[in-house]
Amino acid sequence: MTFLQAFIIAVIEGLTEFLPVSSTGHMILADSLLKVRDPEFAKTFEIVIQLGAIFSVVLLYRKRFLKSISIYLKLFVAFLPTGIIGFLAYKTIKTYLFNPVTVSVSLIAGGVLLILLDRWSNKKEGLYADLEDISYVAAFKIGLIQCLSMVPGVSRAAATIFGGVYAGFNRSQAAEFSFLLAVPTMMAAAGYDLLKEKDNIHSDDLSLLLFGGLVAFVVAILAIKAFIAFLSKYGFKHFGYYRILLGIAFLIFAYTTGLQLQA
Predict the structure, then answer these.
(1) Distance CA 86, CA 211 (A)
(2) CB–CB of 249/107 below 8 Å?
(3) Contact at 8 Å (CB) between 200 and 40?
(4) Which of 50, 212, 252, 258 has the fewest CB atoms within 10 Å, counting from its CB?
């Protein structure tokens, strides 16, 4: 992987990680288009640079994290389903599902659900005055729905936002809970991947990982702020339209070029 390829993929990560459009899906599609020579390192790079994006959430929501211990406990409960299932299914998911065709189909299906979610949540009042008011049972349900995001293209943000609205949050609260839940979820994923792949990461790779993480950090800060403003004004439907168009376009491209055979 070159530094230019690393920069492009890291920008995509920062822009899409907290949007309901699937950052992993976008990076897999980008790998295919950029023809990255080392696909195994690319998969590790894509997960590790998410740490950069995660630190943007820690920075932007540091006051929320210092507010009370209750939010930590409820985030832990929401994280449990993904943590357990992800640990058990890690190898299978990474081996068989990280490919352009899976991503494209997931993007389209998720896009349809986002359009439906937009109509359902339009002007919907939340049941809670604050994030900490959510019950442990509701937090666990959000975690169960987040498990769907282990399929590349589904989008962790989309799954948890959908789960948050279903649990009783309004749109903004659901997005904020999704940001916070990303911290334990993505740190666990990146840490586990590093542990599994540590023998395959060479000293020359560290500079690429650090560079990619820094780029993702800066871009993610800008993306989070823009997403909240956009969500308040326009809702989810435009993300749904984008996902459907991108999924269809890439399916056509994959089948006309034989790209799915390289997945």
Answers:
(1) 27
(2) no
(3) yes
(4) 258
When pLDDT is averaged across residues 115-124 and rounded to a whole number, the result is 84
Task: Give 174's Cβ-side CA count (13 Å radius).
Answer: 33
String of DSSP letters for 75-92: HHHHHHHHHHHHHHHHHH
**How many domains does the structure of the chain reveal?**
1
Decide: residue 218, CB within 10 A, 0-12 exposed, 13-18 middle, 19+ buried. Answer: middle
Amino acid at 237: K
Evaluate whether 25 touches 231 at the Cβ level (below 8 Å).
Answer: no
The per-residue pLDDT for range 72-88, each reduced to its tens digit, is: 999 999 999 988 988 88
Which range of residues forms the domain containing residue 120?
A: 3-262
Q: How far apart are CA 17 and CA 26, in angstroms?
A: 10
pTM: 0.84
Residue pair 214/3 in contact (Cβ under 8 Å)? The answer is no
